[in-house]
Amino acid sequence: MFRKKLMPLFFVLLLILSGCAGFKTGDSKSADSGDKVVIDFWSFWGSEIRRPVIDKIVADFNESQDKIEVKHTFVPWGDIWTKELAAIAAKNPPDVVINDINATALRGQKNQAMNLSRFLEKDDISDRFYEELWNATLYEGDSYGIPFNTDTRILFYNKTAFKEAGLDPEKPPATWEELWEYAEKLDVKNGDTYDRIGFYPLWGVNSDVWMLNSDGKNFFDEDGVPIIDTEANRETLEWVMDWHEKYGANTINSYKSQIDSQQGNPFFNGKLAMYVNTPTFYTQIRDYAPDLDFGVAMLPEREPGSGNTSWGGGFVAEIPQGSKHPEEAWEFIKHLTDVEAQEYWAVKNFDNVANIKAAENAAKNSEMPDKDKVVYQMAIDNMENTLLTPVPVHAPDFMNLVNPELDSILLGKKSIEQGLKDAQQSLEKLIEKSK
Amino acid sequence: MEEVEMAAKKRDEERVASAPAYFDNIHTKRKLLSLINFILLAAGSLLILSPIWWMISTSLKSMAEVMTYPPTFYPHEWNWGNYIKTWKAAPFDTYAINTITITMLVVIGSVLVNSFIAYGFAKVPFKGRGILFAIVLSTMMIPGFVTLIPQYVLFSKLQWINTYYPLVVPAFFGSAFFIFLLRQFYMTIPNELIEAAKIEGASHFRIWWTIGLPLTKPALATVAIFSFNGAWNDFLGPLLYLNDENLYTLQLGLQVFKGEMNTQWNYLMAGSLLVLLPVIILFFFFQKYFIQGINLQSGGK
Amino acid sequence: MRKKLNYKRMEGLQGYVFILPWIVGFIAFTAGPLIFSFAASFTNYNITSQMDFIGFKNYENLFTADNLFWTSLYNTLYYVLFSIPLTTAGAIFLSALLNQDVPGIRFFRTIYYLPAVLSGVGVYLLWMQLLDPGTGLVNTALGWFGIPGPNWLFDPDWTKPALIFMKMWSVGGGMLLYLASMQGVSKSLYEAAKIDGASSWQQFRFITIPMITPVIFFDIVTSLIGGFQIFQEAYVMSNGEGGPVNSMLFYNLYMWKKAFESFDMGYAMAMSWILFIIVFLITIINLKLAPRWVHYEGEER
Amino acid sequence: MSKIVLKNVYKHFDKKVTAVSDFNLTVEDGEFIVLVGPSGCGKSTVLRMIAGLEEISSGEFYIDGKLMNDVPPKSRDIAMVFQNYALYPHMTVFDNMAFGLKIRKFQKDKIKKRVEEAAELLGLEDLLHRKPKALSGGQRQRVALGRSIVRDAKLFLMDEPLSNLDAKLRFQMRAEIAKLHQRLKTTSIYVTHDQTEAMTMASRIIIMKDGVIQQIGTPKDVYDNPENTFVGGFIGSPSMNFFDGRIVNSQFIADDVHINIPEEKMAYLREQGYAGKELTMGIRPEHIHLLTGEEEAELTNSILSKIIVSELTGADTLLYSMLGTQEMIAEVESRTNVTAGEDVYLTFNMDCAHFFDKETGVRIRPEKSAVLVG
Question: Which of A29, C20, C58, C141 has its Cα between 20 and 30 A from that of C180?
């Protein structure tokens, strides 16, 4: 009986579907409306907060002129780049894609992103952006993506807890030593467990950020030579290990899994007094713990004078290799990274933008509440401390080799000396191999 | 059928051995086994359901409560409105229709075509059958990533990007997993049945249609459910091949709740549960096809 | 001289007609990408800018200069070795329980099938919470029995067991297969066994198990193939990094990183062919061993 | 009208195993041929080749003079009953029986008429709407028969159709099949490993071993004149006694026992050079008689032996004893009160004894001309 039912059903379905939109072949882009050139723009901004903002920026651009029509498509976070890569390989890519800033040079080297020099020769817009960001887009002197937004790492601290512990809420810790002292005072122990933890450095960031902070140096020098086995890094890891011993693996892992899973954060209800994260973490405090009295500060220095170096990243707008309308795409990118769009983005999303002027305007924007302004200003101020760690083009997967060594050290399976030495060696081997 | 898992069985046996003749009574014994079985299943259900309870509970919390540390076991405030908000956060109506369209076609294709192919591999002798079947199996062994790019390029050349063809058409050419599965089921059909039909004058096509299909109904139901599941939950396919948001599917739609920095857990869980619901309902009612299975041996001994 | 088409040859032709959809699909959609990926494994292909022939260098590097290759292979073998027997036995056991006449059996079946339907990133993130060493449900539950739960995803010794544990949760998919196949077992066989005085366990062991061996075989072969390709759970649960001390760096995850993070596609393709050979050999061994224990009712005597 | 001929038919599997070799047979219209032999002797393979389920490796197969080698089963106009009946489990009895007719596009009312006729013939009228699983073994067997009958095929093939039935049902169905054949007169080929079925049903029996025909003949023929020790041993129950011995002076000497050979038998044995040689003597149990008096024993060709087991089968009694070191069974009247342990005199009816070549097992015949097999 089910065979008798199935066949007719099948044909009826086919009939209906032949008229369905999903079964019309042909290049969707060929359906250009009138004289306008339609360009495809892919981003991963689909949430109810971000989507309206980017849509507005796109709409503004579409209205501002009558030659180009931007079609914005949301593609899920993370997977967007797999899709982009496939589309580039098929020579049918979109015209503008938002991508990770740290791998821009790598994509330039691999010929995935278009060399933007020919546009920049006509309109040099490089001075719009923070220098560190702009440099990250360069491969052999040419830019392959235009910075859109960025981030940095700052210290959030609970002022109420500070007061309870007898600390001055307007005087956040300035050095690693102070951080430790403060944490000692902020800790509230209840038997074997903690009611409040003062601070733990590896929640929110990894140990590489602290190694960067310790001496302002990345794992590679300017010439791409690995410099991981250094005195500063050894000291940093010793310091991290001190924290590790202080709280013990059980407590640390339990909190960490909660923080990593992006569900629940002990900082919100005062169970954690100090926490390092991006300035945009503020939006979560604002939304989920509106009563929390907190302050923001730069990352402490390892020792006075060693610098408050922080770590950042961000996203660029790039034109994939093979785009059919690079000129029009460039026009749109210019709009996307110009002051007006950037300021709008910054204010509406409370996000750090790459455009310096837009960022500064945003910090003063009347739409921003005072508390927002304080954090935002801190983010801007921290930009000069902020370093990026672009993916080295000759060893893009070096973290695969470094991470396990760092893990082993933290798990006590290797000594700090041994771990760093091994990391250094395997990086040297990797560089050697790829040359 | 009376087979019961070991532990319960052993316990039962011990009891029977030591107990008075009362337990020798077949009905009592059967009832006892059934009770043990029920208790085991119920206990197991709790294990299975607890993660799902977590989803449900999260889906009803406010984001502020989701972010509370330590996490709460049940919502303090039941935000039923989350479900409506979730559905409205993106054009989920359209996504649902799209997903149903794709899924229906994939299921029909999978059930019909794989059964057809599997019959050939199981019941029609031909030269090179073994080698071809080995090739079928080996296509399962190549990791999908490495063919992802060339396959995309291929579909792009066919002008199939941004259509449902790459998602639907391959289902009409068989999948190794289903071919293998159905072949295993066909192998349990006695050859005598096929031979009898041959002698009665039926062609292989007729035998497949009148004997093969009805006799493998439980397996076809399995294929239907698996392929439904696969198409319904497919993420990578729609992600790669659909460029127009009007063509997006539910799984792609769910991704709007996940951003680069934070995730709207309550909506994501509500959305996941909503997307899950039709599958569960379908399964619940489709089960009868397993239960009314066909006794292949009943024609014989 | 043209050979006369006798009816056996005609039957053979019919066989090709049956598998024609697969052949067409294979040639149209699979063969090209496969050949391409094989060829590319001998090049430095990076998808976008280069594809130069470099002979066996990729393969050579894999075996001689890449520790992570061996790490990922070890991790994958570990996972396969433990997860396959556990999930297979679990699924058979579960389907035996679910194949009984117990009140509410349809609900139970649906419940146990639930995890198999729930797929995707959301579930893995959910499990990260459940496996939270401090406040997670798993360790909380273990605590009730006085068992101190391990650090699961933070302890390199426990990451893989955690994934296997998670896999056990969703044995419902396999359960479905076994349930379908158990319907084909004749009641009269059980009746005969009962008359012979077989206990429930003996009936299960000597009737049910042999009669469903074709599906057990299917399950083992396909889960082996699937097990070697474990990816998404590790990718999500280790934030794409491979977990503490690379303990979750499975073969496919490493391959993915090579292909889509370092864009060393040629290398990834070489890796995929090595995996293919490993899985292929294991499958061949499986197929060779099959006649010793797989019982096909439809087989020639 | 259908006459079938198989000429020099061979069947090889995988080019290595030869399942059937040099099979020659002519079946006249209306005959009921039974292929009998131990399992693995190739009898089912022969049947399957006739049905078209197996390819004929070499040789020719004709139905009514038409070469059928390359004709597909559906066009051979045959019907077949399978050992496990091969009923379609998802179809009712009616549909099972109607299946072949439907495929041959018979009109609906005609199908109905034929099925009902067959059902009546087999007493299945009340079961037509049932499915096979709701039938008893005997009923299923009838449906399988019915399915073949409705087709009104030229040739009727049966592959051990009774082997799954219990003894009583088997007996009953055996008679029914025989009756059916008498009524329908369809040429039939029947495969069994049970020699009793073969003896009772066949118009001619074909005994096979290791893919080779051992003997073809009427039941009486093969019983009385087995072509070789295999046939002699296979046909008949209890089976024929065989004794190894030698011929000395018109006497067959096995161990210490001397038995006189009748002169006419001795004549051709001598003629063919068996005098003084080792050979095998075969004698059926019913040709060994029990003697009562000692005097009688001295007069006739008799031996004294100790009974090991005495078995009453109903009409007869089986006496197990030893001839020297070789086992011997005698089938005697049931009324004799011989018990185990008793010493009795047994005599051989040597006119009914057969002599077989010790090397080849072939029966030594009066004329030297025929060597083996027809």
Answer: C20
CB contact under 8 A, B261 and A26: no
Answer whether A310's CB lies under 8 Å from A152's CB.
yes
> B263: which chain A residues are within 8 Å (Cβ-Cβ)?
262-263
β-pair type (D4-13, D17-27): antiparallel
Do A264 and B70 lie within an 8 Å CB cutoff?
yes
Percentage of chain A exceeding pLDDT 90 = 74
CATH of B90-298, one of 3.90.1150.10, 1.10.3720.10, 3.10.20.880, 1.20.272.10: 1.10.3720.10
Inter-residue contact A358 to A367 (CB < 8 Å)? no
Q: Which of B70, B153, B259 sits opposite A77 (nearest CB)?
A: B259
In the structure, do chain D and chain A come into contact, i.e. share 3 or more CB pairs under 8 Å?
no
| Residue stretches of chain B with pLDDT short of 50 | 1-23, 293-295, 297-301
Query: D4-233: what fold?
Result: Rossmann fold (3.40.50)
Q: Determine the residue of chain B that is closest to C206 in CA distance.
A: B3
Sorted by where each begins, the domain ranges of chain B are 1-37, 90-298
Q: What is d(CA A146, CA C63) in angstroms, rounded to the nearest whole number?
A: 40
- Interface contact C185-B268, CB threshold 8 A: no
In CATH, the architecture of D239-373 is Beta Barrel (2.40)
Q: Is D302 strand, coil or helix? A: strand
Compute the nearest-CA separation of C167 from chain D (Å).
37
* CA separation for the pair D23, D29 (Å, rounded): 19
For residue A4, is pLDDT > 70? no
pLDDT for the residue D206: 95
| For residues D358-368, average pLDDT | 83
> DSSP labels for chain C?
-PPP--HHHHHHHHHHHHHHHHHHHIIIIIIHHHHHHHHHTTBT--SSS---B-TTHHHHHHHHH-HHHHHHHHHHHHHHHHHHHHHHHHHHHHHHHHTS--TTHHHHHHHHHHHHH--SHHHHHHHHHHT-TTT-HHHHHHHHTTPPP--GGGSTTTHHHHHHHHHHHTTHHHHHHHHHHHTTS-HHHHHHHHHTT--HHHHIIIIIHHHTHHHHHHHHHHHHHHHHT--HHHHHHTTTS-SGGGTT--HHHHHHIIIIIS--HHHHHHHHHHHHHHHHHHHHHHHHHHHHH---TTS--
Yes or no, beta carbons of A47 and B259 under 8 Å apart: yes
In CATH, C56-293 is 1.10.3720.10? yes
pLDDT at residue D162 above 80?
yes
User: What's the rounded Cα separation, in Å, for the pair C131 and D200?
Assistant: 76
ipTM (interface predicted TM): 0.87
Q: Which residues of D touch B289 (CB under 8 A)?
A: none
Give the tokens for residue C177. 């297969």
- pLDDT tens-digit map of D56-113: 889 999 999 999 888 888 888 899 999 888 899 889 999 999 999 998 889 999 999 9
pLDDT of residue B1: 35
Q: Which of D43, D68, D70 to mutate to test the interface with C (most CBs of C within 10 A)?
A: D70
CA-based nearest residue to D99, from D159, D146, D53, D138:
D146
Rg of chain A over Cα atoms, rounded to whole angstroms, equals 25
Q: Subunits with at least 3 CB pairs below 8 A relative to chain B? A: A, C, D
State the nearest Cα–Cα gap between C182 and chain A, in angstroms: 22
Angle of the B144-157 helix axis to the C32-40 helix axis, nearest 10 = 120
**Do the beta carbons of residue C256 and residue B145 sit within 8 Å?**
yes
Query: Which of B6, B37, B292 is facing C201, going by the closest CB pair?
Result: B6
pLDDT < 50 regions, chain C: 1-3, 300-301
CB contact under 8 A, B300 and D147: no
